[in-house]
Structure formats: structure tokens, C-alpha cells
Design a protein that fits this description.
CATH architecture: 2-Layer Sandwich
Number of helices: 4
Strand content: 25-35%
CATH topology: Transcription Regulator spoIIAA
Distance between the termini: 32 Å
Order of helices and strands: EEHEHEHEH
Length: about 130
């Protein structure tokens, strides 16, 4: 997996490409959190529509749990716990049941998965 990160006016925009790997996804997420904390922004738009792979259900669970735990732990580094994350993915990377999203939300993360960029941007823009 490779990713490119840019700061837009009020959010961090991440584009990711390559083949999904849980270890790489977790490493990438920590780098994203570091950038968000430094930039003092509270919105992340993650465009993974070019990612390939078919994560297993347990990988979706582990990623959701890891992401929520990491967001909470970055509060001491300046990351707002109210930071919103919009993921844009395509099936099979995008789980139609949104299991990973549910895992993260149930652990306090503000996150939503989308199948198109416009809907993800609209959700972020509607954020307070």
C-alpha cells in the first residue's frame, strides 16, 4: 500500500493505492493521525477507491478496533476526539455490511464508509 497525504482547507485528504495489508493499513493510519494532529484539523477524507484486496472479517474487526483505539490515544498529541473520518472504498474493500465501521463507531470513533467521493465530502462538510 502507498498513500499520498495533502492538507485541504479544513481537512486532510489521503489517497491510497495498492494491495490491502492489515499491517500496512495500521501503519498508514498512524501516519495519518500524526499529520492530522500536527495540522490541527478535525476531518479526514480517505480515498481508497484504488485499493485492491478482500479483507477477511477478522481483519475488518482488527482494523476498526485499532483505528478507534489509536484515535483515543492520539488525544494527548493534539488530535481532537471529535475528528471525523470518511472512507471511500469500492467492493470488496468496502464491506456492504460496514462491519469495520461499526466496530470503530462502537468504540467511540466518528467514521463512515462510502462508495463515492461526493457523498463522503458532503458528510464531512455537514460536520459541525
Amino acid at each position: 500500500m502507498t498513500f499520498e497525504l495533502t492538507s485541504e482547507s479544513d481537512y486532510v485528504y489521503v489517497t491510497a493505492t495498492g494491495e490491502f495489508s492489515l499491517d500496512e493499513a495500521q501503519r498508514t493510519f498512524l501516519e495519518i493521525l500524526e499529520s492530522v494532529a500536527v495540522a490541527k484539523l478535525t476531518k479526514v477524507l480517505f480515498d481508497g477507491s484504488m485499493l485492491v484486496g478482500e479483507p477477511k472479517i477478522i481483519e475488518r474487526f482488527y482494523y476498526g478496533e485499532f483505528a478507534a483505539r489509536s484515535v483515543a490515544s492520539f488525544a494527548s498529541r493534539g488530535l481532537s476526539p471529535a475528528t471525523r473520518f470518511a472512507y471511500v472504498l469500492e467492493e470488496p474493500m468496502l464491506d456492504p455490511e460496514r462491519f469495520g465501521e461499526a466496530v470503530a463507531v462502537n468504540r467511540g470513533m466518528i467514521v463512515r464508509a462510502f462508495d463515492n467521493l461526493e457523498a463522503a465530502r458532503a458528510w464531512l462538510e455537514a460536520a459541525p
